[in-house]
Amino acid sequence: MTPAPIVEMHGISITFPGVKALDAVDFRLLPGEVHALMGENGAGKSTLIKALTGVYPIDAGAIIIDGEQRRLHGTADAQAAGISVVYQEVNLCPNLTIGENVMLGHEIRGRPFGINWKATHRGAQAALAKLGLEHLDTRLPLSSISLAMQQLVAISRAMVTDSKVLILDEPTSSLDAPEVERLFGVIRRLRDQGVAILFVAHFLDQVYEVSDRITVLRNGQFVGEYPTAELDRTELIAKMIGKELALLRSIDAERMHIRADHHEQPMLAATGLGRTGAIAPTDLEVYRGEVVGFAGLLGSGRTELARLLYGADKADAGTIEFEGHKVSLNSPAAGLSHRIAYSSENRRDEGVIADLTVRENLVLAVQARRGWMRPLPKREQNQIVEQYIAKLGIRPADPEIPVKNLSGGNQQKVLLGRWLATQPEMLILDEPTRGIDVGAKAEIQSAVVELSDAGVAVVYISSEIDEVVRLSDRVAILKDRRKIEEIDVGPDTTTATVVRIIAGESAT
Amino acid sequence: MTIDERVDNPSGARQGETPTARSTQGWFSRILGSDHLWAIAAIAGLLCINLIKDPGYLSVTYSSNTGAFVGNLVDIARAMAPLLMIATGMCLVIATRGIDLSVGSMMAVAGAIAMEYLSNANAPASIGAASVAILLAVVLCAGLGAINGVLISVVGLQPFITTLVMMLAGRGLAKVITEGQNTTAVNEQYRWVANGYVLGVPVVFLTSVAIAVLIALIIRRSALGMMIESIGINAEASRLAGLNRRALLITVYTVGAFLAGIAGIFSTGTVMTVDVSQTGYQFELDAILAVVIGGTSLAGGKFSLAGAAIGALLIATLDKTVVFLGVPASATPAFKAAVIIVLYIAQSRRFRSWVARATRPGGQDVGEVVAS
Asked: What digits encode the pLDDT tens for the residues A412-463?
């Protein structure tokens, strides 16, 4: 390691109420390198970044930037020290122009007063050119370009101040392959200019493609720092999740035995079920003990169909028979009363109740079904809470802390626990593994397998098609707000099969 | 307030949420960290000021003439009653991320219908007439509250606008009921509710505390409290979890208006007159202040009925202090505003963390210093 580190963090500890988020973590970043920060959800990646950007004060440890120990009392301090960050969600103003977004707060003042817009746009143009984006017209509104390009604009904006350190927090989560390539081009270009880049992503391929070194965290602790070339993938995963690696493999092995008996009466039979503007009339049958996957791109109608099956939205066409009886699912409460449960894809806005405790979140749906008059006795609450904290491995295992203090993956487990506690006969999971790490993913997937073995019908929705194919007995393929095909998953069914079906239709 | 405090934590579970953290803290930092510290300190402070002016301010004596305790504290307890009622209702409404501006007008409606009935009843002095008057008042108010709830939850109107309209409509309705007159009536039983004594203690104080405790018990012993908090924190997630947001909202606005009706009976009972333009005037603002001082955020979610009660006590104390100190009537609102804003700043998270930092010697935690 020839160059002196631009950032050194020693023994960083941060404690939240009831959670030791970081425990004496060491970290260093060299100029001109791409450094990947890896770990499960809840490992402390985001917390470490927020410590470095001055969002969280540190309880112990030292942050040394460019050879000088700093106390960061806010993002402004971090920016002054030359650290810029681009978050997962683009934090720009879509209604302003590209140039305004790049230069916001750094507008070039003219004489005698006011902003010299011409010079400001020239400045923006120059900042974009540094990243090879000179073809962008800085006077177009930001909303006129794709999300991927907006992300690159966000990076330009971060680099306007000539930062020495650029932090990218899950920059690739909403990008497709060519867009990722383009982003990596920009990252390499900045690296070659001597910028130190800290990169957080969940996709291993991408980490191996772009990073030079890797730091692994687990449960708020420092596991190690490795040159990327000397750490193979299996080793990396093992370091990230420890012993749970075997879980993923066992799921693959279990899937192949057929669980559903298609000769008996379907648990749920939808006929011509539809809602104007959301999903065209659709027929669907779901059998006991079966996992039915919904595959399709974002906006294909997969979520919309799932919502009709629970009563989250009201259908305006068609009928649903549940266990042979015609039912009217006109509210979530109605779905719940028929022992159908739906876990939304939008964990933050439609899932957990952030300020309520883990306990309250876990018992909420059960309590809703009982009504307010019959509060769940403490003993039964404890039983539910203990059972699901243990079964799903919710960390920290303290039921009395607000769920917002948990990491994303653990919030997802709480949400899953809430639905499992209602003892559903049919469970609809919409993107239950989005944005969570390998370990939590494996735990949620094995819970799905266990449920279907126990006779529960599961509808599984994910934008990761291989995940849908791996878990499902049958896959309904949706496109452009209608169901285009339904396939039984056999030994030779692969992601490619599904992709071909989705792509094939678009040719006609 | 100890009863009410306990009610807020029926199981003690929430208080023990971080047992290890709590046990390592000293009593001093625990008091400093209490949500109600500053409100209680402000009440004590106001009483001290009064005590300086008149060393006998706090004395309560038993008057054998009237068979009742008399003293400034008794006056404060009596004055707090209507405010305690509407602050309790307001606390629940605010927890759902709503607001109810119509409760002051509801008080006038309750007073108007009760007075109008009593002045026209066949046997206006009977206990039956008093019961009917009270029943009419609370039922009418509850009905108006249910209309608020339906407009907000079913039609989807904004709580602020809906209850603002109801605030205007309510006062208008009160005027229609009494044909614009300040109706007066004579009925000893009705008057007793506001002015009577049981064992020397004002009935109005006992009734209001009993109702507030009862409401708190129902809310916290059933699942209502958690459900109200849940829809206040995240309405859509709560709906998807199977909660009936509409029914909860209608219930909460109805209960709030019902309590405002009781407050209206308390207010009109003391003078046996309804002043259609002054009864309950701006009480909704006092109630909102009481709730906020009590630590419930206007953004909804977690709420504290005990806090709202302490807030109501503070505002009643403040009102009495203003009169006692002889602050000129024209300066009263400004004085009141100044006290409340100072208190609110003292209570703010930023100010508290600033105090905690300033009083922390050598960078050590306050708790550690006291514990060692």
From this structure: 999 999 999 999 999 999 988 876 777 778 888 888 888 988 889 999 998 7
Question: In this predicted model, what pLDDT tens digit does every residue of B259-276 receive, in sequence order?
Answer: 999 999 999 999 999 999
Model pTM greater than 0.95? no
Across chain B, what does the average pLDDT equal?
86
* Rounded percentage of chain B residues whose pLDDT exceeds 70: 87
Instruction: Say how far apart CA A360 and CA A167 lie, in whole Å.
Output: 36
More confident residue, B129 or A174: B129
- For chain B, the C-alpha Rg in angstroms (whole number) is 22
Nearest to B321 by CA among B3, B5, B4, B58: B58
Structure tokens given for A111:
């004489």
- Encoding tokens for residue B300? 């909804």
Task: Let me know: does A11 contact A60? Beta carbons within 8 Å.
Answer: yes
Residues of chain B whose beta carbon is less than 8 angstroms from a beta carbon of chain A are 11, 13-14, 16-18, 21, 221-224, 226-227, 229-230, 233-234, 236-244, 248, 301-302
The answer to whether residues B160 and B101 touch, using CB atoms and an 8 Å cutoff, is: yes
Whether residue B5 has pLDDT greater than 50: no
Q: How far is B208 from chain A (nearest CA, A)?
A: 24
Q: Compute the distance between CA of residue B159 and CA of residue B103 in angstroms, rounded to an integer.
A: 13
Q: Which residues of A touch B244 (CB under 8 A)?
A: 331, 333, 368
Query: B243 contacts in A (CB within 8 Å)?
Result: 333, 364, 368
Facing A373 at nearest CB: one of B13, B222, B236: B222
Beta carbons of A332 and B241 less than 8 Å apart:
yes
- On chain B, the residues whose CB falls within 8 A of the CB of A375 are 221-223
Q: Quick check: B9 pLDDT over 60? A: no
Q: Do B237 and A344 touch (CB under 8 A)?
A: yes
| Alpha-carbon span B98 to B169, nearest angstrom | 19
Q: How confident is the model at residue A26, as a pLDDT?
A: 93
Q: What is the spatial order of strands in the sheet that A19-29 belongs to? A: A19-29, A7-16, A60-65, A68-70
Sequence-distant (≥ 6) Cβ neighbours of residue B222 within 8 angstroms: A372, A373, A375
pLDDT tens by residue, B205-252: 999 999 999 999 999 999 999 999 999 999 999 999 999 999 999 999
Contacts of B248 in chain A (CB under 8 A): 372
pLDDT 10s digits, A224-258: 999 999 887 767 777 776 644 555 455 554 554 55
The 3-class secondary structure across A250-307, one letter per residue, is HHHHHCCCCCCCCCCCCCEEEEEEEECCCEEEEEEEECCCCEEEEECCCCCCHHHHHH
* Token duo for residue A476: 């309904």
Record: contact B241-A375, CB cut-off 8 A: no
Phi, psi of A321 (to 5 degrees): -110, 130
Q: What is the Cα–Cα distance from A415 to A362, expressed in whole angstroms?
A: 7
Distance CA A14, CA A20 (A): 6
CB–CB of A364 and B243 under 8 A?
yes
> Distances from the Cα of A379 to the Cαs of A398, A483, B241, in angstroms?
16, 45, 22
- Closest C-alpha among B115, B151, B117 to residue B274: B115
